[in-house]
Amino acid sequence: MAERVVTVFGGSGFIGRHLIGRLARQGWIVRVAVRRPSRADFLKPMGDVAQITPIRAPIQDQIAVESAVAGADAVINLVGILYERGHQTFAAVHDRGAQTVAAASAAAGVGRLVQVSALGADPHSTADYARSKGAGETAVRAACPDAVILRPSVVFGPEDGFFNRFAKMARISPVLPLIGGGGTRFQTVYVGDVADAIAKSVSDPACAGRTYELGGPHVYTFKELMELLLRQIHRRRLLIPWPFAMAELQAIFFELLPVPPLTRDQVRMLRHDNVVAEGALTLADLGIAPTAAEVILPTYLDRYRPSGRFGRTPDG
Asked: Is residue 191 within 8 Å of residue 18, measured between CB atoms?
């Protein structure tokens, strides 16, 4: 069997670390295209010798991107940011970066491009994140009409930035804020299911040109997710409704921090539900049964439980 080469942009990130091993087991030769290759060395043991190679290819560097996709049979773009810093803006990364990858893939004759976007992507959104994701999808479709676009909801798993963030907050704070009252709905999706979806769509010809919305088996309000979290870590905390206007005001100051816990753009996104649209292609159309959060959370959130007698303290 001829060797198949796939270039994965952003492969050292949260989703990438769950995807790379799957691709290696499928027999792919994997190029992990990142800004700092040394930070992707931990991925090498996931495959055979020389099967996984980190390379330097910032998504905004056209020459580096063209070199990274040269000779590849498939390309996967995982690159995304949650807040802006310096030259790393939403427009630069999600829109122009996606356009650069798609144009280079088309010019190189790559057989399959998979663009990982986000649920809620919309070029007309009032939120910069969602608008840039939507613009990126438009650019990808223009350059590569047969590209596969995947839109996951909030992704959870051992290294996630969602449940881990609030679990850490619950260890030190007696309250957790419910922005906008906590009624925003989410369809959180397990990172392993997202990785399976990418691995399937990069190989299956039937996926060409399609867009899939990836959500878990249940829809939760933000308040329900916080309640689920607190039950899992055996802590009691007050859940305080926090008006959107107050959250935006706080976010102005949070944005001054190196890693802001909340931004005004994220508050704008919380004004809209983050669930799979009716009639959309889903994980089920990829032959994947979505995994419930209740099954996975115990595998990595138990470390946030109180460490008192019998594993509990009075706040538990």
From this structure: yes
Q: Report d(CA 138, CA 253) in Å as an integer.
A: 33
pLDDT tens-digit series, residues 198-235: 999 999 999 999 999 999 999 999 999 999 999 999 99
Hey, what are 200's tokens? 């399937």
Check pLDDT > 90 for residue 159: yes
CA-CA distance, 46 to 17, in Å (whole number)?
9
Per-residue DSSP letter, 152 = E
Q: Please report how many Cα atoms fall inside a 13 Å half-sphere around the Cα of residue 80, on the Cβ side.
A: 23
Q: Which helix (H) or strand (E) holds 178?
A: strand 175-179
Mean pLDDT of the chain: 94
User: Are 212 and 286 a contacting pair, CB within 8 Å?
Assistant: yes
Contacts of 246 (CB under 8 A, 6+ apart): none
Rounded CA separation 294/229 (Å): 9
Q: Find the helix packing angle between 98-107 and 62-69, rounded to 10°.
A: 50
* Beta-strand pair 155-156/175-179: unpaired
Q: Are residues 133 and 121 in contact, defined by beta-carbon separation less than 8 angstroms?
A: yes
Domain annotation for the chain: domains and CATH numbers: 4-156+187-214 (3.40.50.720)
Amino acid at residue number 268: R
Confidence band, pLDDT 50/70/90 cuts, at residue 148: very high
CA separation for the pair 237, 58 (Å, rounded) = 42
Digit-coded pLDDT (tens) for 276-303: 999 999 999 999 999 999 999 999 999 9
Give me the phi and psi of 144, to 5 degrees please.
-135, 85
